[in-house]
Amino acid sequence: MIALPNSDLKRLVEAARKGDRAALDELVRVTYAGTYTLAFRLTGNEDDARDVVQEAYLRAYRGLRRFRGDARFTTWLYRITANCSANLLAKRARNRTEVLPEEESVVDCRPDHDPEQRMAGEDERARVAGALALLPWRLRQVIVLRDIYDLPHGWIATELGISEAAAKVRLHRARRRLRELLADDFEERGRARAS
Amino acid sequence: MRALADIVRLRTGECRGVAETIPQIAAREPGVDPRATAHVTECLRCQAEVAAYRRLLRHLRSMRREGVVPPAGSLPAVLAALEVAAAEQGVHSTTWAVRAAYVGGITVATAAAGAAGVMVWMSRRRTGWAQTG
Question: For the whole model, what pTM was predicted?
């Protein structure tokens, strides 16, 4: 997301609400990268992210008059994006027969790497991103919203249409699953540090 | 005196019991059972697990700062979709305005015709009374 002072963002939102098309376009431009990033993290692939972002902006446009401005515009947009992503993935899961059962172990499809490279922090982060993409979408969503975007449990529960307790349980499962997927990487690195 | 194997087994059992709360401890979230925290402060194995989770969480948090580059052409596609939506909304509002004007016109015309009819009827009645009187 282009770092724009909050006052400028508010000005753009206000103008867009009044029907200023140029302001709306500018609002989309400055928030686009951030919204796309969230959509990509939530869906785990480019095509779905594109669909989600488009739907999110259309919904935001239609609901702009109802946006009261008591929350940050970006937070409001995140909320719509998370909701669009949940809808798309839920719909996809209903229509798909080869859904990955949540308790089934995930095939490790990580490419082989040079041991020295494996120790590099960036590489490890890339592995985390790769493992995140391998998580079933329900688990991935809570990790993205809570651990990447630091959004409150109550907010996440509302957006996913579940109770706060259920959101916490799901987050716990997701973290454990992610940790399992990365177990070899982290332990190997720990051993390399110790030696 | 307890055999070493028993102590290890007991310790492992405790670790298993605490395992559920390790992610919460690593994320420094409230509501963790103090007994679990106490166990972790004394258990190297669990401390290593907390450290691994913290590293994982650190990587996840750093992902927020790293944007994903949107594919070329995706932003113009969104702007075009908004353009279409805005045009549709414009068409809808224009259609609504035309309908409103049409209905309004009919209502006014009906009311005017009614009023004219009443006036003609009244004037004829008045003329009829004058002739009979």
Answer: 0.69
